[in-house]
Amino acid sequence: MTRRHVVPHPDGWAIKAPAAKRASSVHRTQAEAEVAAKKIVGRQGGGEVVVHRPNGRIRDSDTVEPGRDAFPPRDTKH
């Protein structure tokens, strides 16, 4: 399954693959980075986008179609 993380970066917010040392891209706002991460994951066949807080802790995650949600009853806000 494809997964991307939206993480804090000195220049704003970065999109990173789980084992990557470098960011795929950097955005001014967390919202812009989240939209871009969902596009990347969607183009690669679906998967998960994990959004982190400014302190690095996980804030939210979302399944992007055609990925399969591991916990469908809990993901009711999207």
Q: Could you tell me the number of beta strands?
A: 5
Low-confidence stretches: none
SSE ordering: EEEHEE
* Overall average residue pLDDT: 88
Query: What does the main sheet amount to?
Result: 5 strands, mixed
Descriptive labels:
globular; 78 residues; alpha+beta; 1 helix
Set out the fold topology.
Layout: E1 2-9, E2 12-16, E3 25-27, H1 30-43, E4 47-52, E5 58-64
Describe the structure.
This protein has one helix at 30-43; strands at 2-9, 12-16, 25-27, 47-52, 58-64. It has a 5-stranded mixed beta sheet with strand order 3-2-1-4-5, with helices on one face. The longest helix is centred in the middle third of the chain and has 14 residues, at 30-43. Helices cover 18% and strands 37% of the residues. It contains 1 helix and 5 strands. It is α+β, with helices and mostly antiparallel strands and 78 residues long. The protein has one domain (2-64). The relative contact order is 0.22.
Outline:
The chain is 18% helix and 37% strand.
